[in-house]
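Bench notes, afternoon.
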Amino acid sequence: MSKEINNYLKNLFSGTVPDSIDLTAKNKNNIDIIEFNESVKRINKKPVYKRRHIQAAVLLILLLSSFAINTLISNSSDKNPYSGTMSVNTVNNKTTLNRLFSNQIVRENNNPGMIGFMRRGADWGLSKGTAENETVTNSANSSVVSTGDGNDSSHSTTNTQVEGVDEADIVKTDGKYIYYIANKKLYIVDINNPSAMKIETTVIYNEYENPIEMYVDGNYLSVVHGVYKYDEISHQSNDTVKVMVFDTTDKANIKIIRNWSVEGIYVTSRKIGNIVYTITNKSVYSYSPHDSLDDILPGCKNNLTDDNLTTIPLDQIQYFSEIEDNNCFLMIAGINIKNPAKEVILQTYISNAQTVYSSASNLYIAGTKTDYYKNSFLSRSYTYQTVVSRFELSDGDAVFKSMGVIDGTLLNQFSMDEYNGHFRAATTAQKEDNLLFTSVNNLFILNSDMEITGSITDLAPGEQIYSVRFMGSKAYMVTYKTVDPLFVIDTEDPSNPKVLGALKIPGYSSYLHPYDENHLIGFGMSTRETSPNTAITEGIKMSLFDISDFNNPKEKFSTSLGKEGSHSELLDNHKALLYSKDKNIFAFPAYICNRTEYNRTFQGFFNYSIDLERGFIFKGAVSHLDNANTGYNYYTPQEEYFKYINRGIYVGNVLYTFSNSKIVAHTLDKMEYISDITL
């Protein structure tokens, strides 16, 4: 349109005016802004001196109208709402709630895919004795067993990101017992005698309740559950997160000492000392000022004493004054698992959580925000920003301290880190160049006020981040398009981070794990470049990087496993890794394809050791399948998938592997069969 206007102006003042010009414009709602042709035709019949004045007036009206309409349809995010000091206010009344939700709901109502309702949990029977029904069964076998394999009482723990900050998983052990979630059941298994494993207790859940993951701390077992109910008549649903704490002093007769619920969808959790912090989102998909507060606000309850959920009052819900475009409640709960008499501390915000990182003292919650901006006349484009909130942790309380915004989006929790009082984050963003977008990668350093102190931007154009690991003052970042560049970045000076070195090799690492101060393990996929812009995967790849020279990182060793179509949960979930440098174990579950058409030839648990002189040494693999080496494909019966191994742990010199079908014990050194127990 701007080109037509310029040409028309040129012709207007040169005395050459066309009989007609099409300046019909439509806004995003398909509403005509102006029809111009007929006006021009009528004007051309007037005398020239009058015609030019009228034409100029009409053109001025056109420009002013276009400017006004463009301003009206511009999104408020054209200006950064996160600049300056972020203040936190209490909602207090429904008028404020109406204002906070109304704009967002209006926008979402324009999207026909955004429909649904959130209603009060008590409507669907979430009262004491309904959704909380669990059946606890105890093993009839009460024979006395030995105390394990004798001398070695060491055992593995969940592979976590930060030392001292535990993460929940489906398998835990205290060295004498295994705690395992499978088949909507919780199993406690006595492994004091690996040759005669015994199920001490089985907790069976009802159809509405699903145990997700858990923590074990001495005789305290904390299980996080998701509770879901859907009403077929009203088509309304309710999601609730429930945390149950068991006293497992008597493994054959465990007792519930805490049972607490909050409405919403479980995001993640962390355990620091005696406190389990849970992060929950409750979205509001439909909102009307006429809705009752009980239908909108989240609720919580002590399931041991309360029949119904209690609505969180408005004066206990906070919002960020500069941000008024959320339709979600974020709830952070601090639960003392060893003191059931201490009340749960719950902080509620109008916000949302997508990616979470926690140090021992701070919780960082990140969410993606779409940022619209004008890139041409009556046209807008958008990019993505990540909003990160810092909450200070103290004895179960999570107090908001500061908020910052960075360009791009995070890959996962490993894209964030805290070091020497600063927050570090790596993102992939979209950069515009002449209306064409390409991906670029960034690293940001922020102070405790979440203000950017230093950054590296526009790294590896055209690629995106596949993995990140922070180790001390260094950041290791893998980006990928058709080859795998590993970047070494120095962040010691928070105002001036620097790229020290880079290594480009085929394939990519989707998970990076520290080996020692001079070596880094990469786990990902082998690839084969088929064109300058495309590549295909050709199996699982493990790499050992020599990072002793930060300016010149090297791939010291690598090995591949399987062909195209092979996969491991470790590619997406770091908790699937069993690692011990002391025992020289690097083990993981995987299924392997070695034939055409993605036929899987093996599924099991693979055990490697690492030698700095020889690289990765294969020690063996175990499977729960009856015909582990027989080819099978996507048409495999469901009962076979129940035998897929998903985790492995060690206790002493015994390796235990887990599927939905059974638990199997092998020797750790020679991978020799000991015993198994059917679930």
